[in-house]
Structures are given as structure tokens and as C-alpha cells.
Amino acid sequence: MTLDEGKKRELAARAEEMLRRSYVPYSGFSVGAALLCKNGEIFTGCNIENASYPATNCAERTAIFKAVSEGFTEFTAIAVVGGFKRRIESFCPPCGVCRQVMAEFCDPETFQVILANAEGELRTMALKELLPMSFTPDHLQRE
Ligand code: THU
Fold first, then answer.
1. Residue 70 bears catalytic tag
2. Which of 31, 38, 46, 78 is 20 to 30 A from 57 (CA-CA)?
3. Spacing, Cα 28 to ligand 1 middle (Å)
4. Which 3 state secondary structure label does DSSP give 2?
5. Which residue among 60, 70, 104, 119 is the active-site one?
């Protein structure tokens, strides 16, 4: 399913709203995400940092974990935005850990990752472009 421009912009706007919720006392870099479920529901997330830095949770994983914990595991797309001072700056691509979490639940061919920058430009990529040859639940299937 290809998302139309309006839906992508709606998701990017929902992601941008989350920049104000980010908890970023250490990096000052805010990230917001909006995850579209196959049934149309949207879950949002922000990054949540920690004094023990590795305990930080990225915005994308916050959104995905919120959705999964509420019983939603089928997803169509995620919009991600980020920048300092709670403003969108340049494109903010998902980190490797978040790509791996996407690979757990999302179809590599059809799941779309939407990025937006300060100029209002959008970039959309399939998950397989961001995480080629990924390790997925299929690899743990015994014969
Ligand atoms: N961050 C995200 O929330 N998502 C990403 O995919 C990249 C990085 C956050 C983590 C940390 O709070 C800040 O950005 C700087 O690394």
C-alpha cells in the first residue's frame, strides 16, 4: 500500500508534535515518531533519555512499544523527525537498533519510513532499503 502525500504529511505533523514531549536533558536532540497501524490507528513516541545513557529509548521504539503493548503488531509506516531546540532540522534517519525493532514486526518490502526536514521535504524509504539482509523472526524458525 502506497501512502498518499496527505497521509505522509499527517504522520510527519503528528511526529513533529512529539518533539515537545521528548526528554532530552543530555543530548538536547529531540526526536518524534508517528506509527501508522494497518487498521489506521496512529501511535506516537518521543525519545526518552537517561542519566545512564544506554538506557535511552528512541522515539521510534517508544511508538512501536506503545503500539505492541496495546495489542497492535501490524504496521504500514512510521514518520520520524528530529532536531535541536525541539525543532525539525535535517532528515533524521532511524538508528540501527530501531531499524532492527521495525524488522521484527514490519514487512521489509512494504513498510515505509517517512522522513521530513525543516524545508518540508519528505523522503520515503522501504524498510528493506534501510536494513538489507536483516535478521528476522524467520531465522529462528526450526524446520
Ligand atoms: N534518537 C532517536 O530517538 N531516534 C533515532 O533513531 C536516532 C537517535 C535519539 C536518541 C537520543 O536521545 C538522541 O536522539 C541523540 O542520540
1. no
2. 38
3. 10
4. coil
5. 60
All domains of the chain in start order, with CATH: 5-140 (3.40.140.10)
From first CA to last CA, the distance across the chain in angstroms is: 31
Q: Are 136 and 102 in contact (CB under 8 A)?
A: no
d(CA 79, CA 92): 10
User: Measuring CA to CA, how many Å separate 68 from each of 7, 40, 52, 61, 65?
Assistant: 22, 15, 25, 10, 5
How confident is the model over 37-87, as pLDDT tens digits?
A: 999 999 999 999 999 999 999 999 999 999 999 999 999 999 999 999 999
Cell (9 digits) for 43: 501511535
Indicate if ligand 1 lies below 6 Å from the C-beta of 24: yes
CA distance 90 to 134: 26
CA–centroid distance, residue 6 to ligand 1 (Å)? 26
Between CA 88 and CA 75 the distance in angstroms is: 24
Ligand 1 pocket member 95 (CB < 6 A): yes
